[in-house]
Amino acid sequence: MIGGLVLAAGAGTRFGRAPKQLAQLEGRTLLEAAAGAQCAVAELDPIVVVLGARAEEILARVDLGRARPVICVEWDDGQAASLRRGLRELAGCDKVVVTLGDAPLVTAEVIRRFVDAAPRTRALYNGRPGHPVVLGGAEMRALGSLAGDRGARELLRGGPTIEVGHLGSGRDVDTPDDLEEIRDEARAVI
Length: 190
Known about the structure:
The protein is of the alpha/beta class.
């Protein structure tokens, strides 16, 4: 069983007052684009979206498709808490494909390339590490003790990679300027 995990719990303070998960790109929110890409990959089941900051507001305005939302009450402890929360929900999976809720150009086509990938595999965008990443049982157990505002970077170091830069940038949105740049990129791709 291969699970999908979308991390979207952070407050996004660099983005401004409104939750960045609700920012619009090509008629959908950033989070709908991210969750929709995972939902379009039939092999991923179940799919979990981890929310935290302003979760109720986001849930009221976002269609997550077949993905199931879970709330990380410790979201302000950093990405590690969100990752642990999502992995608890996916404990029965053999492996998990992880993406970010603020990376709307990581498409289903990109994600499909990771379904059959070995654990510890991560995406490269023109040589730059990014998401998706694939976690297997050993990584999921190791992440149970992870703390702070860091993800699985150290566990993935030296693992296999798949170059997907020819399919997009994989960029995430941290600021309004990032969103404008991604809008420009999306117009060029879509």
